[in-house]
């Protein structure tokens, strides 16, 4: 079972982060320890959650969409797939997934790029940098995100074709985290057609799947 804890030796009580609601057009952060589950739930139709993760021990190691693609030899995020950092070490494993459509190709939006394309509001990059500043975390660079719930297709010719976002309120995905990580999620406008109506999401942590329903 992808989300079982047999591989982890921790049995005592551990810190469990409280759930965080990330309102549409903002960013939020949550700390997840090795062996815990991270669940990201769409609270509104069409939500996109641009996901970043930074090692608590080594902030210069981060969740890397580029290395994840190479490591998995895939542009698609599927069940059982390991998402890795810039050292190609696993950060988490995808388990339960209601949507099964996520983008591993597009960068986070910036405020200036959104304005140039007729959108208002803060960009993903700036919102995440604000969260890093608030946490007192300094990183060498801001990586590209994993855009959860974003719907795009990749044609045989190599074209990226945005598709209408089909995510519904209540849809979620759950990952088993395998390295102590500070995650940051932006719900700012992506500026990508069909995925450009920001929606709120919830970040929650549990030790086991049944704890989410407790």
TrEMBL record:
All residue ranges annotated as the DUF1989 domain in the record: 21-180
Protein name: DUF1989 domain-containing protein
Organism: Vibrio xiamenensis
């Amino acid at each position: 079972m992808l989300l079982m804890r047999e591989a982890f030796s921790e049995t005592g009580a551990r810190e469990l982060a409280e759930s965080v609601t990330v309102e549409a057009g903002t960013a939020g952060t949550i700390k997840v320890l090795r062996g815990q589950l991270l669940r990201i739930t769409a609270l509104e139709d069409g939500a996109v959650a641009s996901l970043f993760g930074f090692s608590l021990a080594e902030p210069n190691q981060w969740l890397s969409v580029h290395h994840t693609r190479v490591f998995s030899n895939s542009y698609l995020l599927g069940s059982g797939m390991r998402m890795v950092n810039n050292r190609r070490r696993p950060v988490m494993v995808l388990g339960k997934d209601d949507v099964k459509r996520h983008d591993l190709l597009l960068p986070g939006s910036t405020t200036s790029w959104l304005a140039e394309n007729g959108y208002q509001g803060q960009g993903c990059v700036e919102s995440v940098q604000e969260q890093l500043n608030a946490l007192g975390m300094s990183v060498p660079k801001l990586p590209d995100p994993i855009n959860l719930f974003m719907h795009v297709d990749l044609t045989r010719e190599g074209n990226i074709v945005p598709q209408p976002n089909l995510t519904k309120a209540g849809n979620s995905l759950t990952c088993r985290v395998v390295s102590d990580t500070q995650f940051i999620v932006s719900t700012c406008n992506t500026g990508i057609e069909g995925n450009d109506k920001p929606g709120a999401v919830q970040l929650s942590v549990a030790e086991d799947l049944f704890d989410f329903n407790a």
